Amino acid sequence: MSNEAVVSGLPVAQGRARSVSVLLIGCVLVYGLLEAMILPALSLIQQGIGATPAQAGWIISAMALAGGVATPVVGRLADVRDRRVVFLGVLAIVCVGIALAGLASSVAVFAVGQGLQGVGIGLVPLAIGIVRDTEPPEKLRRTNGLLVGGMAVANAGGVLMAGPILSVLSYPWLYWIALIVLVPLMVLAVLVMPSYPPAVRGRVDWTGAVLLGIGLVALLLGVTFVASTGWTSAPVLGLGAVAVVALAVFVAVERRVVEPLVDLRLGGRTVTIVHLTAFASGVASVGLMIAVPTIVAAPAATGYGLGSTPVVTGLIMFPLGVLGAIVSPLAGRLERLVGSRMVMVLAGVLFLVAGLVMLAGRSDAVVLAVGAGLVGVAVGLGLTQGVNIIALTLPADRVASVSGVAYVLRAVGQAVGAQLAATVMALELTPGMQLPSWNAITWAFLGASAVGALVAAVSFGLPARLTSSR
């Protein structure tokens, strides 16, 4: 069927399939922009809702915590229920969260709004599941790349856009602008998106969802305590123990139930490697990027600082999103040239090279921007290839949930990477200043490069070429 795609066994016109894909990319792009614009506005939000610095950190973490719990559930619902209904439901929850955050005058209401927005982290794996049913295999890789790349450019563009918007409007307008765009997109989805009934209706493993939620929340909360209490403090060790026990029980339960939330037996070594590389890439990318704002803001007296403003930080990091967006749709073409395995190996090598480039650049903004661009290429290729492997090799009724796990693991990797980099950089300070020494920053860069080398080495365990489950 050259002009048709298949949706749950039924033909769908190619033009309509393309409209659905554009709609999905648009929703992911808007959500990514909002998520990125919140960080530069944090101090204004803190003043607006009367939050202490500690509370400000927690309320921003609410989005990541809610997303970590909700994403696997959203993914599984998308596998066993009508994906159109699930997609519209997630958009509705996100819109309610945006409205609450925009109207909030207290910490509690704002935190609830942020938590509801966190459900939207599941939009990308949910969209990947819909694309799996909408696009033919030869176009699926490109659309997946556009989804991943759109999120990357949104994260970089949002940081740059926030400044001009906040210079003329109050911070709630960040939420109102997002809502003004998302609501029409949701109406358009009602009109354009066809039904995606599952091939086989199943159930959601709520026991597994609760265990996974407890494990992820304990892990992420434990990581947030590291900066203030240290790695060996009672809160960190206690929450770490809870996370280990909950996740161990989760694994045991998932191996026994008939319809697990995450089928750990599915995909075997290939899916395990994809998940491992997703976690490691999160660690490496944040590990590299966490040092950039410090280098930019530090005075020249440190021997490495640029003594500049956050605007320069945004400009240095902008290539990360732009190049990530450019290369993500090209991952499928590259795979046809060098094979599935070598695309993932290349992503790991680029992480390694990016760390070394940034280390060599020291206080050169241009070289740091080149390193950020290499990180963007590594993330774009690695993440896109990972979701392509999942989408093309697993049964349709598991694509969204397994993709969701990859995104959760990447988010967890980012949280762990941020704390690891911050801890390493705090081990040695510049004499007379509360700033890390260049030696400490060097170890942060080398650590991220080492993680990139690990990604490359592990990726050799992937199959040389993909074979579609279709």
Automatic annotation (TrEMBL):
Its main location: membrane. SUPFAM superfamilies: MFS general substrate transporter. It is a multi-pass membrane protein. Coiled coil: none annotated. Pfam families: MFS_1 (PF07690). It is found in: Cell membrane. This is MFS transporter. It comes from Prauserella endophytica. The lineage of its organism: Bacteria, Bacillati, Actinomycetota, Actinomycetes, Pseudonocardiales.
